[in-house]
Every structure is written in structure tokens, then in C-alpha cells.
Amino acid sequence: MDLYSGYINKLIDELSGLPGIGSKSAQRLAFHLIGLPEAKVNRIANVDDDNNIAELISLYLTKECFDTKIVNDGEEALKAFEQYSPNLILLDLMLPGIDGYQVCREVRAKANVPIIMLSAKGEIFDKVLGLELGADDYIMKPFDSKELVARVKAVLRRYQPVKVEEPAPELKCVKYPDLIVNLSNYSVIYKDNPIDMPPKELELLYFLASSPNQVFTREQLLDHIWGYEYIGDTRTVDVHVKRLREKIKDNDSWSLSTVWGIGYKFEVKNI
Known about the structure:
This protein is of the alpha/beta class. It folds into 2 domains: 42-158, Rossmann fold; 173-268, Arc Repressor Mutant, subunit A, CATH 1.10.10. The chain is built from 10 helices and 12 strands. Helix 1 (2-16) crosses helix 2 (23-33) and helix 4 runs parallel beside helix 5.
């Protein structure tokens, strides 16, 4: 997000100077003009009964590419929480009606959205109470604008877990001249034409072709393809090999070979 900040600041200043465009409109227009994805813009609910302070905070945050919504009392703060769905709440304690402590308590009962409390109260009791009610940070007024922005970014980082990319699924596919056997999507291409093949036939062909020139007994093939609990005999393997040979004929480079007295192998020449 920091990559956009320099462009945003300059663009918002220029747009704000145009007739009929307020600071909020300038911000949204700037986001649109630079093509900043909406999903990347964090929404900050800025709750403070002093509108001048709230406007100043929003100015700092806007320049850092945050979208802000100013709220001046506790009841409106709870409404904004429901309707605006902020990514973070900056919450003043001294609010008319419902105070900041109660707002924090009610928000925390419903969601885990991060909350930073802002207050002129500097007593340890006030800080501890706010943190025990569920606030993630506590900033005393007056505060430095750079510190406020830094704390907002730090809290958001803690609430935005790093996405661990899942490894791409392993592609189980073997290729030979005129033959492609793909176990990932259960397809067989023979001489550029798709071949209809039941699952067990395809699995047997893939198993043999993925271990070229390795001899497998009928018992090994039966156990691997049909499973140890399969109730049947080794003739099942012979029947499936016979069906495979009817669908794919031996190639000059490879063949589905019988090893007499033992079993079968996918023989590849000049490997």
C-alpha cells in the first residue's frame, strides 16, 4: 500500500482544489484514477466527538490510502460498525451518550475487528480497563500523526495473516510417443485421440507406464490397484491387461509386455 501513498497525496491535493470536490470525494476519485483495487483499501471508522480532531485524523489516514468514516457519538459508532464494516476502529473514550468503553464492549462481543482507543486520560487504570475490554492499543492525546499512522498499520498487520500459498497439485501424467496417460484428470490420449477407459484400466496403465521396464507380479498389481482387501484372484489383472491391449497397440518405442511366469511390465526401448 505504501507504494501508492506518494501518488495518492499529490493527486488528492490536486483534486481537492477543484470546484465542488470535497476531501472525501477527492480521496475516492483518486483511488479510482490510479486503479487502486477496492479490496486493498482498509476502512477505518474514526470515532471522536471533536469533529476537528476527527477531520485531522482522517486527513492523515487518507494520505496513507485508508478509507475513513467519521462518527461523532457512541450510537452512531455502533451503526457504523454494522453498516460500514470497518477493518479497524479508532475509538475516542469521551463520547456523548454511549461512551467508548461501552462501544468497545459491544463491538468486541460481536466481532474481532481491531480497536485502537484514543483518549486524553493517561492514568494506568484507564489504559488497563480499555485493553481488558478488548482494545488492541491505547494512544494518549495529544499524539503525533506519524505515530498514529504507524500504530494503525502495525495493528492491521497483526490482523491480516500472511497467506500461505498452497502448493500446486502434483500432475500425475506420463507421456510416450503416441500415448499420454493422465491420472490427474483420468484421461488417455492414444494417437491424438481420446480413449474411453474405465478407472481401473487407466490406473493399471498409469502404474505400469510410470515405472518403465519394471516388472510387477500379478499380486503386486492386484494389491496396488485394487487394494489389499480386494476379494478376487489374479485373473482380474489378466483380464484388464487384455482389455488395455485391445485399446492401445504396441508402439515401436514401447509395449505392454508379459513376463512369463511373473507378471507384466511397460517396456520402453532405448530409455
